[in-house]
Amino acid sequence: MSDVSEVGTAPHRIRTAPAVRLRVPTDEDAFVWHRLFADPEVMEYVGGAPAEPSVYEELTARQRRHDAERGFCLWTLLDPEGAPVGFAGAQPWERPWGPTGEIEIGWRLTRPAWGRGYATAAARQTLERLRAAGVGAVVAMVDVRNARSSAVAERLGMARAESYVAPRTGQRAHCYRMGL
After folding, report:
1. Domains of the chain (ranges plus CATH)?
2. N-acetyltransferase domain spans which residues (predicted)?
């Protein structure tokens, strides 16, 4: 399966995004996310090791609060068949380093969902929802080694701005920015 459908011939190709859906995470999604992200390769650029189920229980509960209070969160990402394949959305950057207080857009997908255009399609939906919620700008923090996520940020039209060193991992991260 290709990541996007193409109709026509170059230079007149029409690219269509896959029909992904975003929904507010449920209690059950904590266990789904734990299962989807148990792969060290999926977690390579976000700490390396899979998290405990309790981390996802807290994360999904926090996302439900964000959605109720702000109108956006990290939503559960559903593939065209309706199966959960990860999350995508936005939340405040609440760490004491980096773009503290700004709204970060992000995505994380299970490895079988990589390369299908899901992250870009979900991020575009997220940007539409953020505009509707009155958010004026977003950032994306991407580990400098993560070429796939950097490519998504660039496809969205985000510009690479400053870089930071993550205190916990010591890895450099690029901060991409975009006004809405």
Report:
1. 19-179 (3.40.630.30)
2. 20-180
